[in-house]
């Protein structure tokens, strides 16, 4: 679809940016006119915003009401979202150079182009948020920023490298997991600790007998993320070199648990990845990954973060965890705090003290809960 041959449709954005074009160029209109959006699908989130499709956003916020409750589905959303996204794109153009960011917009932000997948768009948007944040709000001025530096195995690359004037170097890798659909009418449980295979079978059978949906923690997602990061990072040789694996857990199907699941997988004192090294190796996380990843940054974006393209709203929601990897040779909590300006924890400090998450309807489940706890405790990995 040759959108570039048609006038840019969002007149409100044109009017707002026309008077300030020397200070803040209209990068979104520029992308439109230069054909960067030509291959975007009609249902793409960004195209719907440019077209100011209020019905689309009303439906979007309704479908995602577990995560978003601010109510920006009305006419204000598209304009405010585009204004702030335009500001971030302009900043990234200046930071990393126009060619690389245009390639990102065309290839990654398009989220599959005509085979559009919205989760791919949010994964790319998460990367944009992270790059903007650490470029603008690092521990000192940033004289050098490199997008997709080819450092890893066979030239594999993290998302970006930031080299700050105070001597800190950050390599960052961003991940956004996909989750299955969920039937909210069903009772559900989610163990936060790892079980052996026979225990998973027994627990699943017991739950089926009692009309409970048993979800097991998505450990393979974390294994994949660790191993992917291991191919892209290099081993730090000092505490001033920080490899940060950032995982956007916003779109979990069990949203009411917030960060319970990944935090427990990393930090539970029974068999957490960052507590029991033998467990980490047993489930498929390599020694290489444990030597390279300095810390894991778990977070969930809020409505404000989406609207303003600004991760600083995490300071408001506090819905994040930065967890140090105790197995990396050169890791310093104070250095990571200096980099992120956020609270940083060691694994022993963040155990949730809940082994299992329950979401059950209003009746007496005491017998079933007791039996579920027994099955879990008898079949720990």
Describe this structure in words.
The chain is an alpha/beta fold and 381 residues long. Among the domains are: 1-116, no CATH class; 218-350, no CATH class. 42% of the residues lie in helices and 12% in strands. It has helices at residues 11-18, 27-33, 45-50, 54-63, 76-96, 98-107, 118-136, 197-209, 219-232, 260-267, 277-282, 287-292, 303-308, 314-317, 333-340, 366-378; strands spanning 144-147, 160-163, 169-175, 187-191, 212-214, 241-248, 295-299, 320-324, 344-345, 356-359. The strands form 2 sheets. The protein has a 7-stranded mixed β-sheet, sandwiched between helices. The longest helix is centred in the N-terminal third of the chain and has 21 residues, at 76-96. The protein is globular. It starts with 10 loop residues before the first helix and ends with a helix. The mean pLDDT is 90.
* Main pleated sheet: 7 strands, mixed
Structural class: alpha/beta
Low-confidence spans:
none
Distance between the termini: 53 Å
The portion of residues forming beta strands comes to 5-15%
> Fraction of residues in helices?
40-55%
Helix/strand order: HHHHHHHEEEEHEHEHHHEHHEHEEH
Mean pLDDT: 90
The whole-angstrom Rg is: 22 Å
Shape: globular
**Sequence of strands across the biggest β-sheet:** 1-2-3-6-7-8-9
Total strand segments: 10
Q: Note the total helix count.
A: 16
């Amino acid at each position: 679809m040759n959108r570039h041959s048609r006038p840019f449709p969002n007149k409100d954005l044109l009017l707002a940016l026309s008077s300030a074009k020397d200070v803040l160029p209209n990068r979104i209109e520029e992308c439109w006119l230069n054909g960067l959006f030509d291959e975007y699908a009609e249902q793409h989130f960004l195209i719907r915003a440019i077209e100011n499709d209020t019905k689309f956003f009303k439906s979007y916020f309704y479908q995602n009401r577990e995560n978003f409750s601010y109510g920006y589905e009305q006419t204000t959303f598209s304009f405010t979202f585009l204004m702030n996204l335009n500001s971030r794109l302009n900043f990234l153009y200046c930071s990393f150079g126009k060619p690389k960011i245009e390639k990102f917009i065309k290839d990654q932000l398009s989220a599959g182009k005509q085979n559009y997948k919205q989760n791919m768009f949010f994964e790319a948007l998460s990367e944009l948020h992270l790059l903007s944040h650490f470029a603008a709000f690092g521990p000192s001025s940033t004289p050098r920023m490199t997008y997709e530096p080819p450092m890893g195995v066979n030239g594999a690359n993290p998302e970006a490298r930031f080299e700050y004037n105070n001597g800190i170097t950050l390599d960052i890798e961003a991940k956004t997991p996909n989750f299955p659909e969920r039937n909210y009418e069903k009772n559900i449980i989610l163990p936060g600790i790892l079980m052996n295979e026979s225990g998973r079978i027994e627990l699943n059978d017991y739950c089926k007998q009692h009309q409970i949906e048993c979800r097991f923690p998505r450990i393979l997602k974390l294994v994949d993320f660790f191993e992917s990061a291991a191919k892209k990072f290099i081993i730090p040789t000092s505490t001033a070199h920080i490899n940060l694996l950032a995982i956007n857990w916003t779109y979990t199907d069990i949203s009411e648990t917030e960060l319970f699941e990944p935090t427990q997988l990393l930090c539970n004192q029974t068999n957490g990845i960052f507590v029991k090294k033998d467990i980490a190796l047993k489930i498929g996380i390599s020694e290489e990954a444990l030597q390279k990843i300095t810390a894991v940054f778990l977070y969930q974006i809020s409505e404000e973060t989406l609207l303003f393209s600004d991760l600083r709203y995490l300071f408001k929601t506090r819905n994040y965890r930065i967890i140090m990897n105790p197995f990396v040779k050169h890791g310093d909590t104070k250095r990571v705090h200096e980099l992120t300006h956020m609270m940083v924890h060691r694994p022993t400090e963040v155990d949730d003290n809940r082994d299992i998450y329950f979401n059950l309807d209003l009746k007496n489940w005491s017998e079933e809960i007791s039996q579920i706890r027994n099955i879990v405790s008898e079949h720990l990995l």
